[in-house]
What we know:
This protein has 72 residues and is mainly beta. The protein has a domain at 33-70. The chain is built from no helices and 2 strands. A hairpin with a 5-residue loop joins strand 1 and strand 2 (64-70). It is elongated and about 50 Å long. 0% of the residues are buried.
Amino acid sequence: xxxxxxxxxxxxxxxxxxxxxxxxxxxxxxxxxxxxxxxxxxxxxxxxxxxxxxxxxxxxxxxxxxxxxxxx
Length: 72
């Protein structure tokens, strides 16, 4: 079993806005930041990205989200 936090920071961009202003922002990150080390904390296994469903959340608190999947 691999224990990972429910949420983790994968990427960010700082945006400065004036009152009432909006901007389109692109935030990207390599899929490798989703890698976890299988086994316990002292495992010799290399980190790997698990297949399955993920969700990107944007904002504090998260006001926008997008789902995506990793396939083998």
